[in-house]
Amino acid sequence: MKCPYCQESETKVVDSRLLKEGFSVRRRRKCDGCEKRFTTYETIEISMPNIVKLDGRREPFKREKILDGIEKACQKRPIPTEQIDRLIENIEKDILEISDKEITTKQIGHIVMMYLRNLDPVAYIRFASVYRKFQDIEEFVSEIRHDEENFSTTGDA
Ligand SMILES: [Zn+2]
């Protein structure tokens, strides 16, 4: 890492601090040449898969979109923000386990619903009803039943 003041390439790390639960590091460095100090940040870069939408169009993965959907579903529910953050982290891990190239919105929806289902029943139903655009309540209920069957067969419930 070159010194931003004098371009000297020899610098010393005088302090390191882990940030954000260990996913980034802040380093204070001191230049061997001019002795000025500067700060660098090191973060992990994970490349997420592209999202394949229902109509076949592809778009880059956006964490904010998923977060937005989950926050709407969790509105006015007694769910702490940290729990939602952790949820997003788990969802991203699950997505990466499926693929780091492409994933369908449907697959993402299923993952999100699985987590919300365990987190909060109201948030789950809100998300599911918006996500699946149900025509009527019967279809909604039968879908939930269908899900229950799926969960009990995979032993995930
Ligand atoms: Zn320097």
Number of strands: 6
Ligand types = zinc ion
Total count of domains:
2
Biggest sheet character: 3 strands, antiparallel
- The low-pLDDT segments are 134-138, 153-157
Average pLDDT: 83
Overall SS class: alpha+beta
What is the terminal-to-terminal distance? 50 Å
Using the CA coordinates, give the radius of gyration: 22 Å
Q: Give helix % range.
A: 40-55%
Strand and helix layout:
Blueprint: E1 11-19, E2 24-31, E3 37-43, E4 50-52, E5 58-59, H1 63-73, H2 81-98, E6 102-104, H3 105-119, H4 121-132, H5 137-154
Parallel strand pairs: 4-6
Antiparallel strand pairs: 1-2, 2-3, 4-5
Helix pairs in contact: 1-2, 1-4, 2-3, 3-4
How is this structure best described in words?
The protein has 157 residues and is α+β, with helices and mostly antiparallel strands. It folds into two domains: 11-43; 50-154, no CATH class. It is 47% helix and 20% strand. The protein is built from five helices and six strands, in the order βββββααβααα. The protein has helices spanning 63-73, 81-98, 105-119, 121-132, 137-154; strands at residues 11-19, 24-31, 37-43, 50-52, 58-59, 102-104. A three-stranded antiparallel sheet has the order 1-2-3, with no helix packed on it. Strand 4 (50-52) and strand 5 form a beta hairpin. The longest helix has 18 residues, at 81-98. The protein is elongated and about 70 Å long. The termini are far apart. It binds zinc ion. Residues 3, 5-6, 8, 31, 33-34, 36 line the site of zinc ion.
